[in-house]
Amino acid sequence: MKKSSYKVLLGVLLSTCSFASESKIIASNELREGKMERVLEKIEINEDDLSSVLSQLGLTLNGSSTMPKEGRIATNLVVPTLERGDVLVRAYPEQVAEKLETGIFGFEVRVLSHLSQHGLRVPSPLDFKNGTPLLKHKNHIYMVYPFIPGQTLEKDDLSLDVAQKSGKFVSEMVQAAVKYQPKENEDLPEGDLDHLRKCYEKQSNKFPEILDTPTFQEMRSFIDNDDVKGMIEASPKGIVHSDFFFENFVVDKEETAAIDFGDAYYGSVVMDIAIAAMEFSAVEDQQWNFEYIREFLKPNISWLSTHGFDVKKFIDVMKVNCLRFAIYTTPFTLDEGESLANNPYVLRFQYLKNAEVISNIEKIFNENTL
To answer: Model confidence at 3, in pLDDT bands (50, 70, 90)?
Structure first.
């Protein structure tokens, strides 16, 4: 598998650390070439099924559906309706029912509603006649969203313009995220350091190769450093997307949107700035375009500075998230017969220790904080 393809396979792992291993992973030569699109098999949906699903929303099918860019888990269709134009229909296989029906899914729905109310373009699911955004039909689970026009991006699409737009979107998302007020006794999914410790323990028990990889051990010790723990704890809390990268960013001329909040959690919002800064500048796994980082960070530097994140602390947050994605992608690295020392996020952790890399990011911080 090309290392650049790891990122597109993470969605099913982020919340549970184990879902993918319990699902039917499709193995093929395309996987090894980094071209694989599906993680779970595509669902065949006929017009009768679509009409039945839409009727539970009071909508009427009005033409032929089209398939947008292939999803990883859900089967996605853009469906024209008489009453409200195009909608996005997502069909999930039966084995994800439990995940969709947990409090974590309920949090996702509340997150989307909150961000939409604060002016961000995000998909907010419609409620069926049963009063929920989920409908079971013929052993499949359906959700329907208003369609957000535009194109998701690929690594080859990264540019200064994309860096500017994604940086602005993340800045606005963080400002809205910290306004989220959890309800009393609300079931809030985890995602910060405790979550990473639990995932590390679970994955290292399943894959002992982790314990034989020195950088993995270094990363695990890193998140127990008192300064790192204090830094993450001190971050303002709110909604964290936790997987904001180019394939979850929709661009339609000057309009932008974020999708795939299935792994959102309530925690330290600085995580999203750090994750996106890496993902929108890494033109290759170990080759970053620092002009892109500069443009991405321009609308975010003031927030970082206000909340005490200097260049060292910001790089440390990036390192924390290297552990996050190294844990999640361990099964895929081993499946390809690769040493975990060559996992792209293990290598990225080492890259962030490079003096030249640190110096380049430091210059960007100095330019924007003087």
So the answer is: very low
